[in-house]
Amino acid sequence: MSVSCDATLDGIFNKTVENIKSLSAKSKEKKRKITGELLIIEGEYSSECSTEVKTIPQRKKRKIIGELLIIEGEYSSERSAEVKVFNDPIHGQMELHPLLVKIIDTPQFQRLRHIKQLGTKYLVYPGATHTRFEHSLGVAYLARCLLKTLRENQPELNITERDFLCVQIAALCHDMGHGPFSHLFDGMFIPEVQSDDEHWEHEKASVDMFHCMRKKNGLDKEMEHYGLNLNEDIKFIEELILKGQKDGEWLMKGRTEDKSFLYEIVANKVNGVDVDKWDYLVRDCYYLGIPCGFDSQRLLKSARVCNVNGRKHICFRDKVADNVYGMFHTRYTLHRQALQHKIGYIIDVKINEALMLADGKLRISKAKDNMLEYTKLTDHIFDGILSQRASPLFVGEATLKETKLKEELQNKWRTRVEDYNRSHSTELKEKKSSPGLKEKKSSPGLKEKKSSTELKEKKSSPGLKADDFDIDVTNIKMKKFPKWLVRVYHKTDVAQEVQEKAQECFREWCSKEEFIDSRDTTDHLAEARKILLNIVKRRLPKCIGEARLKEEGLKEIAGAKALPDKAFKTKLYKKLLKTCGEFKPPQDEENFDIHVLEMGFGEVGKEPIDNVHFYSKNEPNRAFKMQKYQVSNLKPKKFHEFLVRVYYDPPKQEDQQEAVKYFHDWCKDNKKFIDYEPDPETASSSSSSSGAAQDSGQASSAAESYKEKSQDHQTPSGKIFNDPIHGQIELPDLLVKIIDTPQFQRLRHIKQLGGTYLVYPGATHTRFEHSIGVAYLAGRLAEVLKEKQSQLIDEKDILCVQIAALCYNLGHGPFSYVFKDRFMKTGNEWKLAEASFWLFLDIVENNDKLKDELKEEDLTFIQELIKGVHTSAEEWTAKGRTEDKSFLYEIVVNQWNDIDVRKWDYFARDCHHLGIPNSFDHQRLLKSARVCEVKGRKHICFRDKVADNICDMFHTRYTLYSQAYQHKIVNIIEEKISEALKAAKVKITKLSPVAVSDEDIESKLSNILHNGTGGEDQTTATMTAMKEFIKLTDHIFEEILYSTDDGLKDARMKLEDVVRRRLPKCVGETRITETEHKDNWILENEWNKAVDEWKKLLPMVFMDKKDFFIETIQLDYSDKTKTPINKKCDKDAGARLDPIKNVYFYRKRNLTDGIKIKDYEKSSLLPEEFTEYVGRVYYTKKSDEEERDAKECFRWWRLREDGMPMILVFDQEEFRGNWCLITEDCPSLDRCGITEVRSCKVLSGEWNLYKGPNYTEPSYRLQNPEYLNPEAWGASDNTVPALSVKRKTE
Where is this region: Disordered (predicted)? Predict the structure, then answer.
C-alpha cells in the first residue's frame, strides 16, 4: 500500500475516533455502551484504538476502522424504543431502524399485507401465501447487511449513515406500487387496458406511493430528525426504486458517481444481482416447498466494490462464481415449476380477463392514477368481483356499433343531459298545474306539508350537469367480447338520487342513439364473476401441449434480426404463430388459445454472469470477468427460451384427446419455428420406411399413447399437492372433488393464525393448506395402522377419516379463532363443528359422486369425527362405527389424550411460518402408532421409546402459545378486530350467522339420503344465513377499513388503530394464581391499589387508573391439563396435570396391551407443573414518559411482592427532578438516567450511598425511610451529592 493510502486510512481512523468521542459526550448511556464496544475491539486486536494507528498492520487497520464506523453509525442517531425486531422465518431476528418502523406503520405500506408475493400461485401451490409485506422487510434487512459488509471491509468508501438509511428505505418501499396479484396487474392487465401511448410500471407507482405516504403521515419531519437531507435524499431514494442507470454518462442526481455502487444494491440494472432477488429466491422456495440451490449469505459476505471502466461496481470473489450460476438457475427453476406453471399461467389469464371485464363498473385501472384510491386496491378485488359491487361513480356502460371519437360522444351526452333536464322540468310544471293537485290544495294542512316537501325536493334534486361526467371509450380485447364500449362516470361522489337520475338519463340515451347497440345487454361484471367461479371450481382450459420455439425462424418471418423487449417479442411471436403457423384444429377454433412465454436464467445478458465482475484473493481491488476455462463446462448452450402453449376448453373428453394429437401434428408441420425433434427410437426404427408412412406411424403412436394416458386419467387415484411441510402429498379423487368447491376454496382466504400475521409477518398461511395437511396425515396414520393390523380397518374407514380431517375447518369464520372465541363468544350458540359439518353436507348435496359413495352411516361417522367422541367413556354412544373401531375417533379429534393429526400438522406448519424452532418430529410418532387394548377398548398407542418425543410435542404446544398465539400484542390486535366486527355487525348482515341446530343437520341429511324429498323446504333461515356465511372471509378487514359508510365509522376507526399501530402498550406481565385468573377483578383491584401507592411515592407522576386494563391468560402443555373430564370416564383424572399420563404405550415384546410408562422411565428434567397463569397490564399510551412511569410502577409492584430491596433516588432535593427505581448495586449512575443523587426514599432493604463512583469514597448508611437532601444522610453540606449506590447485605 502506498504512503498516501496509509495517510488516508490514518485520517479516516482519527476522524472516526473523534466523532465517537463527541457522541459519547452527548449521552452517558451512549458513553457506557460505546466504551464497552471499544474495549471489545481493543481486546480483539490487542492495540489501543484511540492512540497510535500507524503501528497497526494495514489489514487489521482496515478491520478496526470498519468496526469503528459501525459503532459511529449505531449511535449517530437516537435509537429509541421504536426500534423493532421482526421474527422472520427466512432471516431470523431482523432489527429495523426506527425510521423504517415509522414507514411500516402507515396504511400505504400495510396495504402490502394484502398483496400476495406470487400473485395467483397460491391457487396451485397451497403454501404460496406470503405477501409483498414480508418480502419488503426482508429486502430492507439484506440491504442493511450488504452495506454493513461493504463498510466493514472498505471504510474508504465513506458509506454514511444517510446512505444506509436511504438504501434501506428504497429497499423497503420498492414494491409499494404493486397492484392486485403483483405482476399479473402490471404485466398482463394494465398493458391490455391502457392506451398505446401510455407506459405504466409498478416502480413508478412505488415512487408515487412513497410520496403519498410521506405527505399523509408527516414523514418528512421524521426523516429530518434522523439526519436526512430531503433535497438530496428523496431524489436518491426515487432513483434507487427506479433502478438507477446501467451505463453511459452519469445522470443520477441523488449521489455522485463515486457512489455508483449504491445503485446496485436494491435493483441492479447492470447484472441482475441484488438483494431483491436474494430475498425472493429464498423466500419463494421456502413457501413453495421447492429446494433452493442458492446461498445468499455466501454472496453477501464476499461482496466488494471495485473499479470497472472508471466506475465503482459491486463485485464478488472468483470462487463464488458457481454460486452466482446457482442463483440464476434457481430463478429459472422457480419460473419453470411455479411462476410459469401451466395451470398457474392459465389462472392468471382468466383472472386477467375477469379484471378486464370488471374494469368498467369497478374502475380498477383508474385507481393507479390516484394513490389514495390505489391504497384500497389489493387482492380483495377478487371478492369484490364475486360480490358484484359496482363503483359508486359508475353510471352506465353500452356497446358501440362502430368506433366513435370521444369528442363526438361528449357532445351527444351533453345534448342528452340538456334534453333530459328540459323534459323533466316540463313534467314538473305539468304536475303542479294538474287538477289533482288543486284539489289537494283545499286542505290547508296538506298544502303546507306539500309545499315543504316540494321545497326539499327542489333543494336536494338539482338538474344534471354534463361537465360533471367523464366519457370513456374502450375496447375489451377478448375473444368472446370483441366490442367497443362507451362508459359514463361521475367525476365525484354524488347522492343516491342524483345517481338514479344519471342512470335513467343513460338508459334513455342508449335507447335513442343509433351508434349504440341497445340489443346488447351483457353485464360484464356478471361475466367476470362467472370466470372467477370457474377458477374456484377448477373449471379451467386444459393445456394440450407446449413446445420450444426457434427464434431464428420467427425473426426471419418478422423480417428483423433484432427485436425490442421480451414483452413485444412475446406478443409478436404469438401473432406470427396464429397467422403463419396456420393453427386450424378440427374442433371449434374459438375453444383454443395460443400463448407464448419467455423463460430464462436472468434478465440481463445472454449468459447469466456475462455482466458480473469478480476479484481474486491476491488482487482484491482488480475486477475481471470469468473466462470460459474458469467456469464449469456442464452448463446449457443457451440461457433463454420462448415456449408456445396451447390451451383447450373441451366440451367433451374425447375432443381433448383429438386436440392433443393435432397439437403434435402441428408442431411437426411447423419445424421452421418449432424446435421439433422426433423420438430417436421411432426415427431409427422407421428409417427404412417412406416419409409418409413414418409420419403416419408417429401420429398413430402419439394418439394411442395419449389415449392410454387419458383413459387412466379418467379414473385417477387422486391429485398431488406440493406442500412445503409434507412435500408431495397425494389425496384421493373424492377429496379433490370436495376441495374444488366454493365452500372449501373459501378457506384460502382465512388465515390459520388469525391476526398473528400482524405481528409475525410470515404467518400468512391459511386454513386451506392446513386442512389438506391434516387430511394427508390422517390418511397416512390410518394406512400405517392398516399395514400393521389390516383386520381392524378398511378402505371406507380411511376415506371417511380423511374427509373428516379435510372438512374439520370448513366452519371457521374470519381470522379463525378470533371469530369463534372472541366475536361469537357471547349471545350466540354458534359452534364450529356444526357449521363445518353443515357446509360439508352442502357440498355432498351438490355432488352425485359423493352421494353415491357415502352412505348414511358414513355421513354420521364423519359428523362424529368432526365433533369428537370421548373414546374413554364407559358407555359407547357413537353411531357411525361400532365400539371395536373406537380408535378411529382418535385420529382427527382426540378427546382421550389430545394427540391427533391436527396438532401434528399445525405444530409443524405454524413453526415453519412463524420462524419458531420445532423440536417435535411427528413422523416418529406416526410410524410407531399401533392399536392396543386398554381397559377393554381399542386405542391408539405408541412405542415406549418415543415418550420423550411426546413430551417434545406438548412442549412445542406450550412454546407456540406463549410466543405466538397468546403474544401480548397479538391478543390486543385480535381483540380490536373482534370489536370492529361487532361494531360492523348491524351494517354487514353476513356477520350474523345463524347457529346450526341438530334439526338443521337432520333436515340436510334427510334431503341428501332421499334425493331432496325427505326433508323440509331448504329455503330456511339457516340455508340463507349459511349462503351468506361462505362469503365471509378475512377480506372483511379491508371491506370495513376502506368503506365510506358512516354506519361503519366506529368499526373503521378500530381497524385504522391496528394498521397505524395505535394500540395499548403492555407495561408488564407476571405469573399469577389460578384464583386471580378466574376472578380477574382480584388482580385489577391489586393493581389499582398499587397505582395509588405509586402516585403517593411520586407525586409528580400522573397516572389515571381508568387508562389501564387487565388481561389474564392460561398457558399449558395440553387441553387435558385445563379441565379434566368426568372422573367416571377416567379414574386417573387427577393425573391430567401431566399430559403424558394420559398416553398409553406398548412394549417391543408386547404389541397388544397398552400400558402407562413408569415415572422412573420419564425424564427427570420435565417440569413439575404443566399449567401456568399470566396476568398482563395494558396502558393506553399518552406519551413515552408516561409509558415509562407505568412500566416502573409495574416493576415496583411485582418486586415488592417478591420482597426485593428497592430505593428511589432523585437528582434534586426534596424528591424532585429526574428519578430512578434501583434494585441492585450501582457503581455508576449513568444507566439510571441521572448523574447524581440529592434525595432518596428507601422502600425496602438496607442501602449505602457513596460520595464518589465505584464505592471508592466514604459511604452513608441509610436507616430512615426518606432523605430530603444530602445533609439528611450525613453529607458535609447539600452541595455534595452521592454518585454510587450499594445494597447492604449480610
Answer: 421-462, 677-722
Which residues are CB-neighbours of 238 under 8 A, at least 6 positions away?
207, 210, 254
Residue type, 556: E
Grouping H, G, I as helix, E, B as strand and the rest as coil, residue 479 is coil
Give the whole-angstrom CA distance, residue 1113 versus residue 836: 27
Q: Which of 287, 259, 282 is nearest to 141 (CA)?
A: 282
Residues belonging to the active site: 202
Looking up cell 393445456 gives 543
Strand partners for 600: 640
Q: What is the pLDDT of residues 125-176, one digit of tens each?
A: 999 999 999 999 999 999 999 999 999 999 999 999 999 999 999 999 999 9
Instruction: Looking at 1010-1079, list the stretches that DSSP marks H as alpha helix, in order from N- to C-terminal side.
Output: 1021-1029, 1036-1041, 1049-1059, 1074-1078
pLDDT for residue 680: 57
Element (H, E) at 542: strand 542-548
Rounded to whole angstroms, how far apart are CA atoms 469 and 396?
Answer: 11
The closest of 1058, 350, 286 to 647, measured between CA atoms, is 350
CA atoms of 920 and 193, how far apart (whole Å): 51
Residues counted in the chain:
1290
Distance of alpha carbon 803 from the chain centroid = 28
| Distance from chain centroid for Cα 590 | 39
Burial (CB < 10 A; 0-12, 13-18, 19+), residue 636, is: exposed
Beta bridge mates, 730: 720
Nearest to 982 by CA among 813, 810, 763, 809: 813
Please give the C-alpha separations between residue 404 and each of 366, 508, 518, 523, 1143, in angstroms, as whole numbers.
Answer: 21, 19, 16, 22, 78
Nearest to 966 by CA among 812, 818, 819, 811: 818
Q: What is the DSSP letter of 1290?
A: -
Indicate if the alpha-carbon torsion angle 397, 399, 405, 409 is positive or negative: negative
CA distance readout (Å), 728 to 722, 901, 1078, 1208, 1271:
5, 17, 46, 63, 79
> Regarding beta strands 304-308 and 311-317, do their DSSP bridges make them parallel or antiparallel, or are they unpaired?
antiparallel
Candidates 1288, 335, 501; CA nearest to 488 is 501
Cβ-Cβ contacts under 8 Å for 584 (sequence gap 6 or more): none
**314 vs 591 pLDDT, higher one:** 314
**Number of neighbours of residue 1089 by Cβ within 10 angstroms:** 12
DSSP line for 558-574 = HT-SS---HHHHHHHHH
Q: Residue 131's pLDDT is what?
A: 97
In angstroms, the CA 1266 to CA 348 distance is 74
540-590 pLDDT per residue, tens: 999 999 999 887 777 676 555 455 556 666 777 777 777 776 788 887 888
Query: Residues 225, 228, 231, 237: is their CA dihedral positive or negative?
Result: negative
Q: What is the dihedral of CA 858, 860, 861, 865, to 10 degrees?
A: 140
User: Of the candidates 56, 95, 68, which has an alpha carbon nearest to the alpha carbon of residue 13?
Assistant: 68
Backbone angles phi, psi at 48, to 5 degrees: -70, 125
User: CA dihedral defined by 285, 290, 293, 296, rounded to 10 degrees?
Assistant: 10
Q: Residue 667: which of 580, 581, 555, 595 has the closest Cα? A: 581
Cα–Cα distance, 910 to 914 (Å, whole number):
6
For residue 568, count other CB atoms closer than 10 A to its CB.
10
User: Beta strands 1239-1244 and 1171-1179: pairing type?
Assistant: unpaired
**519 Cβ contact partners less than 8 Å away, ≥ 6 residues apart:** none
| Statement: residue 888 has pLDDT above 80 | yes
Beta bridge pairs of residue 883? none
Neighbouring residues of 51: CB distance < 8 A, sequence distance ≥ 6: none
Partners of 563 in the β-ladder: none
